[in-house]
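Quick one:
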Amino acid sequence: MIFHETKLADAFLIDLELRGDERGFFARSFCEDEFAAKGLVSHFVQTNTSRTSERGTLRGLHYQRAPYAEAKLMRCIKGAILDIIVDLRSQSATYLQHGMFELSAENRRQLYVPPGFAHGFLTLSDDVEVVYPVSARYEPSAEGGLRFDDPSLGLELPIAVTTVSEKDRSWPAFNKQTAPVF
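Output:
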């Protein structure tokens, strides 16, 4: 694996290091030792799969409050997404900054999302499938979210959002006084 730092503290884009021959290729998509050596969460408790039918669908931006804050290792295995993360760690040098990364079946890139980040994605194609391990079990009482169209985030998306769940549409506007503490 090849780790690339992003402009956001502790978030990494990860390229697979393909080893191929006439049969195809082999690559590691996770190595506990390599993650631990970089100081990243290296223990995941479940793996989630998400399928989305239509281009322009936005899922998120979600987070889990401590002690259920979760790291994620995002990978798109069919189609393409724009993965969006926002640093909500108040002591971070990149607090409230966001990053957007294209992940696709074609580029095989992964995104390591550290605990304390809000996360979501916008489908850039029809028929998208995403697979991602998470480091904490889902706890409904710890769930929170940000609205993708909150002006304080300043997200400039490359395509129109056509579908958003009622839950994701109803998150309150961001407020530093009531923001989660990570």
